[in-house]
Amino acid sequence: MNNLSDLGKLVLRLTLGILLLFHGVSKLMHGVDFIFPVLAEHGLPTFLAYLSYIGEVLAPILLIVGLFSRPAALAVVVNMLFALGLMHTSQFGDLAKSGGWALELQAFYLFTAVSIACLGAGRLSVGGNSRFN
Predict the structure, then answer these.
(1) What torsion do the CA atoms of 7, 8, 14, 15 make, to the nearest 10 degrees?
(2) Computed from CA positions of residues 112, 68, 9, 26, in that sequence, does the dihedral angle turn out positive or negative?
(3) From 45's CA, which of 10, 79, 98, 117 has a CA 20 to 30 Å away?
(4) pTM to 2 decimals?
(5) Is 60 exceeded by the pLDDT of residue 121?
(6) Cβ contact 64:17 at 8 Å
């Protein structure tokens, strides 16, 4: 049973890490300038846009390899809360054309990260079962 639990944690980490990393790579290629006006509109300093690199590049890489998985997952949680609060508030009550919630992908990222923060990385990771993993 424990082996299946560790395998499940690996699948959860890889799914979140790989899918979220695509967003990070896009930001590496195209920059984060599009976030500046949104932050300014909310009275926040524009340099905060650069923190998305932590939540969408560094944290996903750490999740994929299984190193500092709990702090990495918490970084994703913070990143997703900012994304939801700054970019997606108008969509909270919307449905997608397919009938699902318009924010189901963002919710998946958020709650998968919460799950990893609670469960840890498991033994199938670089960090093993250390306290921060």
Answers:
(1) 150
(2) positive
(3) 117
(4) 0.93
(5) yes
(6) yes
- Rounded CA gap, 26 and 106, in Å? 16
The amino acid occupying position 54 is I
Question: What's the pLDDT band for 1 if we cut at 50, 70, 90?
Answer: low
3-state secondary structure of 3: helix
pLDDT in tens, 71-113: 999 999 999 999 999 999 999 999 999 999 999 999 999 999 9
DSSP 34-88: GGHHHHHHTT--GGGGGGHHIIIIIHHHHHHHTSSHHHHHHHHHHHHHHHHHHHS
